[in-house]
Specification:
The chain has helices at 17-26, 34-42, 47-54, 66-73, 77-100, 134-144, 150-159, 163-169, 182-194, and strands at residues 5-10, 31-33, 59-60, 63-64, 107-111, 126-131, 172-175. The chain is 51% helix and 14% strand.
Amino acid sequence: MNKPIIVGITGGIGSGKTLVSNLFRLLGVPIYNADIRAKALMNSILVGVITNEFGLDSYKDGVLNRAHIAKAVFGNSAKLEKLNSLVHPAVAADFKLWVSQQYTAVYVLKEAALLVENNSYKLLDKLIVVTSPLKLRVSRITKRDSFRSEEEIKKIIASQTSDKAKVALADFIIRNDESNMLIPQVMKLDKKIRQY
């Protein structure tokens, strides 16, 4: 049974990593979206431990109460660390199981916002970093998340690892800056990875 090449794809908020992942999906590449899976696990196998740690208000009508959790961990590094210690191992186990089911794939993509921040990129074979200019990222997030102020968006961006630091660790870089076309970059990279 062949094990696929495991490629991570990351980028700061608003960089377009999900758009790029979807282009790879169109080329037949299996995609594991760590953020989506984390939410699914928090609404299934992690309900008990999260309720235990963060109280009954952690779930509303059987669904994770994100506002309650955000309030509990915001500015409280110990609580945030505790939440991560519950969620990250569950996601890692879920990802390992998912990879084992992708035996026909040449490679798979793990899309996650925090691959560099939590050092999980070290467990991958290759790393793609999607970059985008700050002004463009702010504009995209403003359109997508109308509930966020520009100040809040800039705070989120400032709290993430810089593009420069991510690029230094990258095996491949995709520039989503509206002057380099995405599709040719993705197709070229897909061809390159399949040749490993």
